[in-house]
Amino acid sequence: MRKFPRKFFNYCRMSVSTFDCLLQLVQCHIARQSTNMRIGVSPEERLLVTLRLNDAPVRGYEDDVGNKTTMRLFYPESASTNPEEHNTPDTLMVLVPFKFNDLRWIKEIILDEKRNLKGFWRSPPQIWQGDLNQIRILHPYFLYETATKLLNIPTNFPPKSKQKPVHPTTGILAIQMALHYCDVVNVAGFGYPKTTDFDHPVHYYGSNKMKSMKDSSHDLSAESRALKTLMEAGAIQLLRQPS
Fold this sequence. Notes:
alpha/beta; seven-stranded parallel beta sheet; 6 helices; 12% strand; globular
C-alpha cells in the first residue's frame, strides 16, 4: 500500500468550490491543439470558462486561440517548467493521472522530493516555477467514464492477448468533464485527420506530423466518432467541423 503525506492530498481533488464558477456560467470553451484552430476573441470572453490542453501555447497565437485560460489539463510529459508563460496567474493547472507515476511525479514536485524520472515516455520537468496552490488533480473516474462509456474501450483483456491497450486523449477527457459542469460546451481544434495522412501537422504549433501518431496509445477513430455523435446530439458545439 503506497502512502502519501497528508499535505499532498490538499491538491488531490477538484473540489466543489473549484466548480462553483462553472455552475454559474453558461458556456465553456475547450481549445485543443490541432491545426483547426481559429476561435478568435469574443466580446463575452471574460464570461466564459476556457479549458486548454497540455502544452499548447497562447502567446503569439492570441488572434486565433484567444488569451483566456481558466483551466489547463495536462500530464507530466506535456507539462511546462514555467506554466505562467502561456497561462494567467489564476489558471488552474489540472493534472490528468493516466498512471501511478504521474501521481508520484506531482507529489515530488509539490513536496520538493528527489525526482524519479523512470516510467515516463518522455522526461517530465524536474522544476515547477508555477504557483503550487493552482495545482489540481482530475478525479480518475473521468478517465474511466470516458474510456468505458463514451469510447467503449475495453478494460479487460484475455490472458496473453496481443491487443494493444489504449486510453483517451486529454482532449476527449476535457469534453467529458465539461459535459458534467457546463450548460453549453464549445470546442475548437478537434479535427482528426487520417493517421495515414503522414504529412498532416498534428498541432497548430511545432513540427510533429501525423506519422508520429501511427503507433500512439489512442484510438483516434473512436474519438472522432464520439465527437460527431455528441455534436449530432446537440451536446457540444464545434466552432469548426471535424475532418
